Amino acid sequence: MSTADTKLNHREAGVAYYLGEQQRARIKLLSRSWIWRLELPTWILIGIIYTGWFACVIYWQQLGLVLGSTLLILLSAWYMSLQHELIHGHPTRWRRFNQLLGTLPLAVWYPYGLYRDSHIQHHNDEDLTHPEKDPECYYYTAEQWQRLPPLFKSIVRISNTFIGRLILGPALDIIDTIRSAISAFITGDRPAITMWLVHFGLLGLLFHWMAGYGISAIFYILVISYPALSLTKVRSFFEHRAAENSAARSTLNEAAWPWRLLFLNLNYHLVHHDLPALPWYGLRQIYLESRVQYQHRSEQFVVNGYTEWFEAFVFTALEIEIHPFYDSENKALTESIRDTVIDSGDRRPESV
Fold it and tell me: What Pfam family is a match for this entry (predicted)?
């Protein structure tokens, strides 16, 4: 492996990383097509998700418990994928309008603003998997791990199995979210308090409306929302790993089309981190056009579908506990890694 391949690629969150001038020109050409300019696939997606979700509630009695619940779980998980797309500037360039499209709490747990802010922070690839800087990180510093009670360490290890992540992962996320809400009210964080009050207000209205069709709040939370959140954990189970080269921290999962559609092609996660403004319907196309290059760039962090993860880790835990690349102070990457930069590729501080 070359020295360049083991060095960090430093760039700010949201900055596009092109494989070269040819790829940049190719994406620019695609962005001029009428389908991309109108964001037609995303508008269709919005229509399907909202129409389908509300129709399932309205026709709940006719659909029945099993079919109605299954459809609502899938649509709620799909909605969370849509919220991610909205965060990255689709289908419009108006941030507030996109937020309006994703504020309704169909998935219950996370206010759109909270998800947006933490996810944008996650896109600083220099800090990807950093236990103290990456809000979507599963790793701990040595100091953090030592402070954990033995019982919680066991819970973490169980949640690092595939089945454990689906069962316990949502609960751990929900606990962190509740802590965030409590902290906002205790510290008097007015913007955060406003966000939470709007979220709770909309959630209350939504639950009241659903009750008129025979769906109680408790039923929706336990039978619909929690499983929907579990479903998203399939995608994120081993989405990132600790690696010296930041490009090798994001996976490339060659999943089957139903998963790709549900997760809006985020299985090609390295491509998404390289080109965060690329719309969901362009991710697979761009990946396939440069498949060998992306697999090399990821240092072969490639998965042949989610079944591969299930078979390997259904009851076997991922080795995700103490992050391996932090000094004894647990505050920064080791100097030997931090001082290096990948020189290959083309980096530009712009949207695609």
Answer: FA_desaturase
